[in-house]
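S.,

Sequence below, as promised.
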Amino acid sequence: MMNPDKLRLSAPDPDKLSPRQQEVYNQILATPRGRVVGPLALWLNNPDLAEAATELGTYLRYRNSLGPKLGELAIITTARCWDAEFEWFAHKRLALEAGLDPAIADAIRARRDPEFSDPEEEAVWRFTLEAFTNPRKQVSDATYAKTLAVLGKQRIVDLVALIGYYSFVSVTLNNFNVMPNEGETLELQD
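The prediction came back faster than expected:
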C-alpha cells in the first residue's frame, strides 16, 4: 500500500534480502499481519530495529489489554494527531470493523470532539488527544485520574505504550513520505 514514486526510502527488495533481513522478513510474515508493509517494510533496512519493532507492535496491536475497538481508536487518534495519512488509511477501516461508530471517526478526522456513549471510548480518545495537544505533552491530573478509574492500571499502561508505538510508526511514515496508493482518498488534508 505504498506509492513508490514518492517514497524517500524504499523497502529492501524481497528477492535481494541479506540473510538477516530474510530472517526478520520471515518473522514478520509469521505474525498475525501475514505481510510486510508500511513501516515494517522500511524498517527492514535495519533488520535489528525491524525485529524489535515487530515484536512490540505485534503485542500492542493484537494482544493489548484494551481490545481491538479501543486499540484502533487510540491508533486513529494518534494518526490524526500526527497527520499520518497512511496510518489513518490503514487503521480507520480496522477501527470501523472493530465496532467503532463511523461518526466518531469522522469527528476525529475533522478535529471535532466526538460524541461518546461509551465511557471507555471517551477516556481513550481524551487521554490520547491530550497527550499530544497539551503543551507539556502530558495529560492533566484530572484526565489521568479519570482514565485510570475507567481503564485500570494495566490498560492505561497499554494505552500509553500503544500511542507511543504508533507515534514511532507515524514519524516513520511521515518522514519517509509513505502515503496510500494513488487514487486512494486522502482524508487528513486540511
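Residues 68-175 form a domain with the AhpD-like fold (CATH 1.20.1290.10).

Coffee later?
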